[in-house]
Design the sequence.
């Protein structure tokens, strides 16, 4: 692998990272670089730890089982941390993997599983969610891996909510003349987006959400969207209206 | 299966449909209803043909190999046809399936594969794309299945373009202070959205797109999105700004 190729390989590693840091690799990371990507000793890649920015590094084999990377130079500084939570009713296996990956690509800073009346999945593998978030960050050049919160019931989430954070919830049953005009009324500050289960919120949940002083209702058009589609669609509208898609410099 | 359950089963069938129409089922449709969903004779479902609206119907076995549905009553009229084309550089297998499903959910009326300099997939199975569009329409309550166009090269697409249709293209390299303000300038009329390949457009393609009098450039934030994520994100912004997410009645 030539240096020209190194831009395509990104690895999330333990930090902090600075020039000269040596990071031991886990067996799965070593296997991925050595056996899947066919890295040879000295091969170049990019590494990040979620807070030190992105660094050029070199792969080194150390004996039969061990390997490490040596950190060389910073390629990108750590961007200002976004502050956008994504709350969702858990889905089953492959579609949950997909939703976690997509939310990470869309720049959320925290993933919060919430249990609702119509939620169909109650046992969650948080390690698997974290692995999916890391994989998406590695593939898409995202430098911050979202936190994964412990699952909570919707009622408890709302009860403990800090009202300074606006909670934008997607309601299939609502009708808005102009969803973007609604989002334009959202005050500046920390945000959260909530997408419900595929059966929707029940009547009591909708009442509770609508009555809370920190919520804004959002609609996603006349068609029913699957939850993973709704995740990307809602986050796109929120990022473009109130988030970091405005006035960024590429 | 009780009548109460029939709302969850939707089948795309050959039309036109009206009260009393008898539609023979294909072997795969019969197998799906009879062996996967365990339909018994007289079981209720919904059928649609992409232009006659949605109808309640009954499943009937006809001997060892044949089955049909009898159309009873219309549940929903056919909605006004949207007019939103989605142009995209083809992806590989599973991710192409996914993108076609997502674009259908988002309400596009035509799927147009376009070949660009960095496009990695050149052989396309259009039947498979159509099957994915139908599956998404069945699952998500969409009553119009998008047309699938034959693949064309980007240059030929632009050359043959009718300038009355605005082409909104997503450019990772562009910077917009406010993507929604840009979309607000799009004239009313037929629309198309173009998402490029994961390597992006090349310099000549970007010049050609930017120079065309019928194009509007759109950005999707500071992170690189995978093409299937970009599809949903771009279509969400366009539907909310200029499409049928405004002022719909649920």
Sequence:
């Amino acid at each position: 692998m030539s240096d020209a190729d190194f831009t395509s390989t990104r690895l999330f590693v333990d930090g902090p990272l600075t020039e000269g840091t040596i990071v031991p690799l886990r067996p799965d990371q070593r296997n991925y670089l050595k056996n899947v990507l066919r890295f040879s000793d000295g091969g170049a890649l990019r590494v990040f730890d979620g807070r030190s920015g992105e660094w050029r590094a070199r792969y080194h084999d150390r004996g039969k089982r061990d390997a490490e990377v040596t950190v060389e130079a910073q390629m990108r500084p750590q961007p200002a941390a976004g502050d956008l939570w994504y709350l969702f009713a858990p889905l089953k296996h492959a579609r949950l993997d997909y939703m976690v990956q997509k939310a990470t690509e869309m720049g959320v800073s925290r993933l919060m599983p919430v249990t609702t009346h119509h939620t169909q999945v109650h046992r969650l593998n948080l390690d698997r969610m974290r692995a999916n978030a890391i994989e998406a960050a590695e593939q898409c050049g995202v430098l911050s891996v979202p936190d994964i919160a412990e699952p909570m019931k919707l009622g408890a989430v709302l009860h403990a909510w800090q009202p300074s954070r606006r909670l934008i919830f997607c309601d299939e049953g609502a009708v808005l003349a102009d969803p973007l005009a609604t989002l334009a009324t959202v005050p500046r500050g920390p945000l959260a987006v909530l997408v419900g289960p595929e059966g929707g919120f029940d009547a009591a949940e909708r009442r509770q959400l609508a009555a809370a002083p920190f919520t804004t209702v959002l609609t996603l058009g006349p068609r029913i969207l699957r939850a993973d589609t709704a995740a990307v669609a809602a986050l796109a509208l929120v990022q473009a209206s109130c988030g970091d898609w405005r006035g960024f410099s590429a």
Q: What stands out?
A: Chain B has a mean pLDDT of 90.
